[in-house]
Write a structure and sequence with these properties.
Blueprint lengths: L8 H31 L5 H18 L2 H6 L3 H21 L2 H8 L2 H11 L2 H6 L2 H17 L2 H4 L4 H22 L11 H24 L7 H53 L1
Helix pairs in contact: 1-2, 1-5, 1-10, 2-4, 4-10, 4-12, 8-10, 8-11, 11-12
């Protein structure tokens, strides 16, 4: 068995088609920065860098030489998975696209968008546990069933899986670290527990792939792909953990200082 799939021409077309939303999104982001800077304080340059890198990671994973090799080599496929399903969503989120979009439009339209974000379906999807199930559950289905081999033979399935992998990962990352304005803020402890469970599910899946390759994948490629998923995923997950811990520290620091000041005041009163 091997992973050299005979791809329908439609899949090659879809790869180019999938690149369009990212290119349009990048142009829209730059325009939003331009209009926002005319009305408000300058948008941080580092956020533009993050967003640009996120777009590049996404484009590399869905079109071009790397994407072409991913159809023939499972280990290369896993690199594109890390790019599209982990690194690109994180980098794009750090660019804060929704924030800059809301800043660039009129107050009236911004209120309409905010009303949409308050809707029950969106709030439900933003729940950390729901986002985790959609993200990790989708990956388990992809690599432990015949979906992986089938998507290389069915253009529509190929498109749906790639869209799901990206959107589910973006939603998962957004539910764990609050970069954008968030209407329903879950506690750091709750998010941390869900994150640990999700990371464990990802690590276990990587080990499962190493031992039990998806249909049509040679054992050596599965072993290398599993290691890439395990260690590469850990590296990206570490960034999420650091950001979450930093946000938690910043959120709790004022209370710690207040408590310390209060204790110091009481000690001073006792001495006096």
């Amino acid at each position: 068995m091997n992973t050299h799939h005979h791809l329908p021409e439609a899949i090659h077309f879809l790869e180019k088609l999938m690149a369009i939303p990212f290119i349009v999104g990048f142009i829209g982001y730059l325009l939003a920065v331009y209009y926002s800077n005319r009305k408000f304080k300058k948008w941080p340059f580092y956020r533009i860098i993050f967003f640009t890198l996120g777009i590049l990671c996404a484009l590399l994973s869905i079109t071009g030489p790397l994407a072409k090799l991913a159809h023939q080599d499972f280990s290369i496929h896993m690199i594109t998975h890390l790019f599209l399903g982990m690194l690109a969503p994180l980098l794009l989120l750090l660019g804060a696209p929704m924030t800059i979009f809301l800043r660039s439009i009129s107050t009236h339209n911004a209120r309409k968008v905010t009303t949409l974000l308050k809707s029950k379906p969106i709030q439900f999807m933003h729940q950390p546990i729901i986002a985790s199930v959609l993200n990790m559950g989708g990956l388990w289905l992809l690599y432990t069933t015949s979906l992986y081999s089938s998507m290389h033979e069915n253009a529509l399935l190929y498109l749906l899986i790639h869209v799901h992998v990206f959107l589910a990962s973006y939603l998962f990352t957004m539910s764990m670290i609050y970069i954008e304005p968030t209407l329903q803020r879950h506690t750091y402890m709750y998010r941390s527990i869900i994150l640990v469970i999700a990371l464990a599910a990802h690590a276990i899946l990587a080990k499962y792939i190493y031992a039990f390759p998806p249909k049509g994948v040679p054992q050596p490629e599965a072993e290398l792909g599993g290691m890439l998923m395990y260690y590469g995923g850990d590296a990206i997950d570490l960034i999420i953990i650091i950001i979450l811990c930093h946000q938690w520290y910043k959120a709790s620091r004022p209370r710690i200082r207040k408590s310390t000041d209060y204790s110091h005041s009481n000690q001073t009163s006792d001495i006096l």
